[in-house]
Structure formats: structure tokens, C-alpha cells
Write a structure and sequence with these properties.
With 347 residues, this protein is mostly beta strands. It has one helix and 29 strands. It has a single domain, classed as Methylamine Dehydrogenase, Chain H, CATH 2.130.10.10.
């Protein structure tokens, strides 16, 4: 959890002006308050799936059929490649505890697999062999109910639902699926373009030649740059039913800061740009608590402590995904070359 950084000052004599002391503490907090500790790296996998069950239990997934698990807060890791799926890219994962998790493979064929024994064995729970299928993200409301989203097939986004913890999946009927415009799709960048809005509803964002927010039965055009296949929304995070922040940009121009972050506080009716934007293209955003948010991407990691209006860069290390513990306060990152990091708050 983010906390104010207090630094003891010794050897000072005389009176300290209260206002000056408060300003000093604020400067120290914003300059030195947060950093990222690299917990592990060096594998050949690109990690885009990350699920943090609690402050000790972390699961990751990625390319080359890779799944990683830590049960001690990232100190030690158990790595494996899913048998018969060594060439698949598992770009999202949802973990329910130390032994149970669901992973999602993009591309064709597209798969959803489940383990109940800590990644020793996996069961195929969903498969689609059509050439047009490309899964993008998983999201669960609880240990039983979840959704998966995929790129448009015949001009409509694919959506599937599960009510038994991912053991079986039902497709939403075609006539009820959201309509996609030409060149509109989802980026499978971090598994966070689909999010639960509350205990019953979900929302998702699209990118490419058209970037939109899909919420309930509405489709809202987002103010990202339109018409470019590599631009648009990559990730959305939800604070409450009204306050969301969406990030993205152009993944082919990782340092560009224009039009990479937008904030709504009225459920998507209107959007604001930050006063100080994130420092480049960002593939993932996570809400932490209070007014604190964190984003990551190919050019680094940024923190906001005022609901997204001003962003402070705390690292230039590349990460694909950031997630907060479901039942705790820890914040972890995952990215290229099997790298996993943890947000540290200096005190």
C-alpha cells in the first residue's frame, strides 16, 4: 500500500518552520517514495499474464507455453511449460489460490486450460480452431463467474462466459454480441482491456482503426487517435461505477505521450486528459487504492496519486502488465525475458 515516506532528519538545531517541513516531506515522497525491485528474470518467455491472489501467491503466463508460480511473494519461483502447448502464447491467467488457475492462449487454435494441482497437469476447457479466432483477455468476478473476449469474427466481438470457475464455457449468441467497425479489435497486451465494473457487469475497450468503450449496451468513442492499426486503448482500470482510466497509445512509438491516457468520472460520458501524461505508450493500468494508480509499458512505469491527473515516472524498465493483490496490498509487474518486479514503497 502506498504510504507517505517519512525521512528522519538528525543534527538540526533551532526551530523548524512547519510549512517548510511539510514541503520537504512532500518533495522527498514524490522523488524517492517508490521503486521497483526485480524479483526474477532471464527466461526466454515474454510474460503478459499476471494474477496476484494474495501478497504471497503470484502466477504469471506467457510465450513458449510458459507458466510461473511463486508462493512466497516472489522470492522463489516454480517454472514450467505446459505439455503439448509449448508453442502457445498464454497471454492471460486467472488464479484462484495456490493450486487452481485458468490460462488463455491466443491465436488459432485458441485455448483455455485449467489446473487444479499447481500447474502439474492441465485440462482443456475451451478450444476454437477457426482461423479468425484470437482471444484477448480473461476476467473473473469471483471464483466461479468469468468472461473471455476475443477479436471480431464476422464483424462482432467474441464473448464467452463461465459459471463453474472456467471448467466449461458458453458462447454469447451471435445476435447479442457487440458490433465492431472495420479495423477495430482488442490488443492482447496485458489481459486488462476487459474488466469487471461491479459484481454483475463488465466493460471492455478496443483499439486499432477505431477505439471505443463498450459499457452495458452502449458503445462510446474514445478520444484516442483513430485510424491507425497500432494505436488506441490497451487497458482500462475501474475505481467505481463512474470513475475509469483508459491507457494505450501507439505501441510502435513507445515514447509518444500525446493521447495515451484518458479519465472519466461520470461513467464515460465525458473524458479528460491528464495535466501530466504517462511517459509513453502504456499497455496496462491498475487501480491501487484512494487516488493512487499505476501504469506500465515498453518505456517504463508511472505512478499517479491524484486520480490520474499527474503522472510521475518511477522506472524506465519495460513491463507489459501490472496487477495488485486481490486479497492484499502488494503490486507486481511482468514483462519480457521472464522479468517479474514488485513495487516497493520506501519508508
Amino acid at each position: 500500500m502506498l504510504r507517505t515516506f517519512h525521512k528522519s532528519i538528525s543534527g538540526m538545531t533551532g526551530k523548524i518552520i512547519r510549512l517548510g517541513f511539510v514541503i520537504l516531506i512532500m518533495v522527498v515522497n514524490h522523488t524517492f517514495g517508490q521503486r521497483i525491485e526485480v524479483l526474477t528474470e532471464g527466461t526466454k518467455a515474454s510474460l503478459r499474464g499476471l494474477s496476484v491472489v494474495d501478497d504471497e501467491t503470484i502466477w504469471v503466463s506467457g510465450s513458449n507455453g510458459t507458466v510461473g508460480r511463486s508462493l512466497d511473494g516472489g522470492i522463489s519461483w516454480q517454472w514450467s511449460r505446459v505439455k503439448r502447448f509449448e508453442s502457445n502464447d498464454f497471454r492471460d491467467i486467472e488464479a484462484f489460490g495456490k493450486t487452481d488457475a485458468v490460462i488463455m492462449a491466443i491465436g488459432s487454435p485458441s485455448y483455455i486450460l485449467r489446473t487444479h494441482d499447481g500447474a502439474q497437469t492441465w485440462q482443456v476447457c475451451f478450444v476454437d480452431t477457426s482461423s479468425a479466432m484470437f482471444l484477448d483477455a480473461l476476467e473473473f468476478w469471483n471464483e466461479q463467474s468469468g468472461s473471455v473476449i476475443g477479436d471480431p469474427v464476422n464483424n462482432k466481438f467474441f464473448i464467452g462466459r463461465t459459471f463453474d470457475g472456467g471448467r466449461s464455457w458458453q458462447r454469447i449468441p451471435y445476435q447479442h454480441l457487440p458490433v465492431a467497425e472495420e479495423g477495430e479489435a482488442c490488443f492482447a497486451a496485458s489481459g486488462t482491456n476487459l474488466r469487471a465494473m461491479n459484481k454483475r457487469e463488465a466493460l471492455f475497450v478496443s483499439g486499432g482503426k477505431r477505439s471505443s468503450l463498450f459499457i452495458r449496451d452502449k458503445k462510446v468513442l474514445l478520444p484516442f487517435d483513430q485510424g491507425n492499426e497500432s494505436s488506441g486503448a490497451n487497458s482500462i482500470a475501474v475505481k467505481n461505477n463512474k470513475t475509469f482510466i483508459v491507457v494505450g497509445g501507439d505501441y510502435l512509438n513507445k515514447d509518444r505521450r500525446e493521447n495515451n491516457c484518458f479519465i472519466t468520472k461520470n461513467g464515460g460520458k465525458t473524458w479528460r486528459r491528464p495535466q501530466v501524461a504517462p511517459f509513453g505508450y502504456r499497455s496496462c493500468i491498475e487501480y491501487i487504492f484512494g487516488k493512487n494508480w499505476v501504469v506500465c509499458g515498453l518505456s517504463g512505469v508511472d505512478i499517479s496519486q491524484d486520480d490520474g491527473m499527474q503522472w510521475q515516472n518511477i522506472s524506465t524498465e519495460a513491463y507489459h502488465v501490472v496487477r495488485k493483490s486481490k486479497r492484499g496490498h502488494a503490486v507486481f509487474f511482468a514483462g519480457q525475458n521472464g522479468k517479474v518486479g514488485k513495487l516497493l514503497i520506501e519508508r
